[in-house]
């Protein structure tokens, strides 16, 4: 199994943001020398440059969702743990990212982990069905002590980075456990909290360790002995309106940044035990602050919406980094802008092929500020902007900067394409619709119910007609008034993707039987290519024509992309392997590069 994307043809990649879960703190860590942040998304570990989102890396070695990842203090290794209880230690500085060791630490999910200051030991906590904390050697996975003290799942840990080494863990049993070693043994437990302990963190100096919890308390302990050194609470509760999810120390250990469910950030002077600054990050559920991190002189927080907020000394937001938090289900290139829709209804755009901007929607109770109330099924260029369709039975129109119109359709949209003028064609689970978005009217112009199940749609470049693929393998062509003008013989499998060439002369169709056919749209849809382009080992998921209409890119659930030549259809296609783990979902061209999107929530650019 390929555990990382390593391909000379890969020229760019947009990566997902961290996995967010309401009520659960997010753990973020940074490289000790490089300005890189490491976090988890699904089964993947993502490393991203703090200053350049285009400088990133995706590790794909886990079989289960990853719960924690951290760089070693020497910067050479990464440790990551998953929901199966497996800890993997792999090389960061080696271009092959070689696996050093894999060991099953628990019989349950790993929630957090930390390295010691010498890059020799790793403490791991989680849901171990009995054993919930363990310290292991980095190169063998052998235990370095017996760590007991919790009666429920441990969800956070902190490792003192200087001798004498100490470990503190926090748990859902409302307790913090303090260990001395190595070999590490329980010294004592602290019962200062009256609810979940969400985060424990050692100061860089090692003098203090802080704990924060769902009881709204912030407690300080002596770093060497683990005795209570005080509480940060200002005039009352530290965060009176919500659970405290995370904390982060300033590089000089003089201040502590805390993040809370009350949508606020607080900055504390640890020596004076006083509140220095506070910042309200919003009023919506999406604005809950789930993580705080202070690395390389930069303070940051992460909202439940997935926004990574860069902060100055007064806690003012100076920059926001956004990215998908769900698989990309639809994608299109609009001019020079990449537009991606996701399984959770969110829509993002990228103008530089490096970073994302979310197009906020107003879906009720959506903590991700979704544009659609369900999976986004199609994205299409329209006028100077684009249109999107989703499983909320809605087509929405964006002028390029923000959504400005929406139209309800009958049935869940399966395909979408722009026609001439102000109209788009929509194929739904109940029929075909012509939807208009003009200066004075936005609505359904015409709807025709059909007796077959539409699965894909593509329109001719001039908007005069469009083709609809069906579950029965047939392809039907309609004009802009929904009159059927052609019917093609069924292919052997369900039509999964259609693509009309930019010059309007060719129509390509991919099916669930792995075959790709090309029809001559200028000559009665005669078959041009058949029984040749069938190299995928799973259903075809997407097709895209090159700007000159001479090459066709295809993708599949087999994680590969093929690049076919229309001039030499019998020639072996160029193949890109291991493009997206769990399958590629969408393809497009951006200039001379192929753009692909997948179930790993990545969007990649490939040179041809």
From TrEMBL:
What the entry lists under InterPro entries is as follows: WD40/YVTN_repeat-like_dom_sf (IPR015943), WD40_repeat_CS (IPR019775), WD40_repeat_dom_sf (IPR036322), WD40_rpt (IPR001680)
What SUPFAM superfamilies has UniProt attached to this entry?
TolB, C-terminal domain, WD40 repeat-like
Q: Transmembrane region positions?
A: none
Q: Which domain of life is it from?
A: Eukaryota
Looking up Pfam families in the UniProt record yields: WD40
Taken from the UniProt entry, a GO cellular component term is: cortical actin cytoskeleton
GO MF annotations for this entry?
actin filament binding
Q: Name one GO biological process term.
A: actin filament depolymerization
Among PANTHER family, the record links this protein to:
WD REPEAT-CONTAINING PROTEIN 1 (PTHR19856:SF0), WD-REPEATCONTAINING PROTEIN WDR1 (PTHR19856)
Q: What protein am I looking at?
A: Actin-interacting protein
Source organism (scientific name): Aureococcus anophagefferens (Harmful bloom alga)
- Its gene is AIP1
């Amino acid at each position: 199994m390929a555990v990382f994307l390593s391909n000379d043809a890969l020229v760019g990649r947009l990566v997902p943001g961290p996995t967010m879960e309401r009520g659960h703190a997010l753990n973020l860590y940074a490289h000790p020398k490089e300005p890189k942040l490491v976090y988890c998304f699904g089964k993947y570990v993502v490393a991203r440059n703090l200053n350049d989102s285009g400088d990133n890396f995706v590790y794909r070695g886990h079989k289960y969702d990853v719960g924690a990842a951290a760089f070693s203090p020497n910067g050479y290794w990464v440790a990551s743990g998953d929901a199966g209880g497996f800890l993997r230690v792999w090389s960061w500085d080696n271009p092959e990212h070689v696996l050093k060791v894999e060991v099953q630490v628990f019989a349950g999910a790993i929630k957090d982990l930390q390295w010691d200051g010498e890059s020799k030991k790793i403490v791991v906590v989680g849901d171990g069905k009995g054993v919930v904390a363990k310290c292991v050697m980095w190169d063998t996975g052998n235990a370095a002590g017996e760590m007991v003290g919790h009666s429920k799942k441990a969800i956070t840990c902190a490792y003192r980075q200087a001798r004498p080494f100490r470990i503190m863990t926090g748990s859902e049993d409302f307790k913090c456990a303090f260990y001395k070693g190595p070999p590490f043994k329980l010294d004592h437990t602290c019962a200062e909290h009256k609810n979940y302990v969400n985060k424990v963190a050692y100061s860089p100096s090692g003098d203090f360790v802080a704990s924060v919890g769902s009881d709204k308390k912030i407690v300080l302990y002596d770093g060497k002995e683990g005795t209570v050194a005080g509480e940060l609470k200002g005039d009352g509760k530290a965060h009176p309106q919500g659970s405290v999810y995370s904390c982060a120390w300033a590089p000089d250990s003089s201040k502590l940044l805390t993040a809370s469910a009350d949508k606020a950030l607080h900055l504390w002077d640890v020596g004076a035990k006083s509140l220095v600054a506070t910042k309200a990050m919003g009023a919506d559920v999406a604005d809950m602050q789930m993580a705080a991190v202070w690395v390389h002189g930069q303070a940051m927080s992460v909202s439940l919406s997935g926004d990574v907020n860069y902060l100055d000394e007064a806690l003012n937001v100076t920059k926001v980094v956004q990215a998908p938090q769900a698989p990309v289900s639809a994608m299109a290139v609009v001019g020079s802008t990449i537009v991606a829709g996701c399984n959770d209804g969110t829509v993002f755009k990228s103008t530089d092929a490096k970073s994302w901007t979310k197009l906020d929607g107003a879906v009720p109770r959506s903590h991700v500020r979704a544009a659609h109330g369900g999976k986004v099924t199609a994205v299409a260029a329209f006028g100077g902007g684009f249109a999107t369709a989703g499983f909320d039975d809605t087509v929405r129109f964006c002028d390029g900067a923000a959504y400005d119109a929406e139209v309800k359709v009958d049935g869940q949209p399966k395909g979408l394409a722009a026609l001439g003028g102000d109209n788009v064609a929509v194929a739904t689970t109940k029929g075909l619709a012509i939807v208009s978005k003009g200066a004075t009217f936005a609505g359904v112009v015409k709807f025709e119910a059909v007796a077959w199940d539409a699965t894909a749609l593509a329109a001719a470049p001039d908007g005069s007609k469009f083709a609809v693929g069906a579950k029965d393998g047939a392809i039907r062509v309609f004009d802009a008034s929904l009159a059927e003008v052609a019917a093609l013989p069924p292919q052997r499998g369900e039509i999964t993707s259609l693509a009309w060439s930019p010059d309007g002369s060719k129509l390509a169709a991919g099916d669930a039987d792995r075959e790709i056919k090309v029809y001559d749209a200028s000559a009665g849809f005669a078959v041009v290519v058949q029984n040749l382009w069938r190299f995928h080992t799973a259903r075809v998921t997407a097709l895209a024509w090159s700007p000159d209409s001479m090459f066709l890119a295809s993708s599949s659930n087999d994680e590969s992309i093929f690049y076919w030549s229309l001039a030499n259809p019998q020639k072996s296609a160029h193949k890109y392997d291991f493009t997206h783990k769990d399958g590629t979902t969408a393809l497009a061209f951006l200039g001379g590069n192929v753009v692909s999107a997948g179930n790993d929530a990545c969007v990649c650019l490939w040179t041809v």
